[in-house]
Amino acid sequence: MARSRVAYEYTEAEDKSMRLGFLLIAAGLLSLLGLGCCWLRPALQERGGGGSANCTVLAVRQLGERFACTFSCGAACRGTARYPCLQVLVRTSRSSAPALLHEDERQLRTNPKCSYIPPCARDDQENSENVTYKQKYWKEKVGSQPFTCYFNQHLRPDDVMLKRTHDETVLLHCFLWPLVTFLVGVLIVVLTICAKSLAVRAEAIKKKKHL
């Protein structure tokens, strides 16, 4: 019995391999729990009451109101500039009521009154030119052509998005990489145990032959 217990003791390398495996298993499980609670659940809630529709532009206008944005011009250089508010009103195939178009959920949360937030430049005039260019795009290039938009009747019934931040690919990666980490950890532990078991059996068979 004493010899058997000694034979099954893991070497330093095998012990490190086992620790690495258990660490990866724990990291995978914690990542799944963390993403599920902090990110994946809100993302699914946003998608739960939503869907896609065909949108048609009704009106494109600039409001007189201007909003502040923060620009960066170096490691220790930051400042505030302003940009005009562009609103793109659309009609969806799901409802005859006009809705305000937004780039995505992130832009909607940042500024729910406007349809577009330009990359913040130091010069207010440059910000105005970027907004005017976007206004011409919706008026002249898109015009009355229908396009796909996304909505969520439960959270924001009066707003639609041009694209979704939380698409199927992002949700897939949220599950995929923690799951891969967990499975790699399990594989390392199993292979280490199997390799040790085979080594012990081989040693036992070798001893029997010498007896």
UniProtKB/TrEMBL annotation:
GO molecular function: calcium-activated potassium channel activity; potassium channel regulator activity
Organism: Pelecanoides urinatrix
Major location category of this protein: membrane
Segments crossing the lipid bilayer: 20-40, 170-193
One protein family per Pfam: CaKB
Biological processes annotated in GO: detection of calcium ion
Claim: Membrane is one of the keywords in the record: yes
Protein name listed in UniProt: KCMB4 protein
Entry's Gene Ontology cellular component terms: voltage-gated potassium channel complex
Localization, UniProt: Membrane
Membrane topology, from the record: Multi-pass membrane protein
Keywords assigned by UniProt, alphabetized: Glycoprotein, Ion channel, Ion transport, Membrane, Transmembrane, Transmembrane helix, Transport
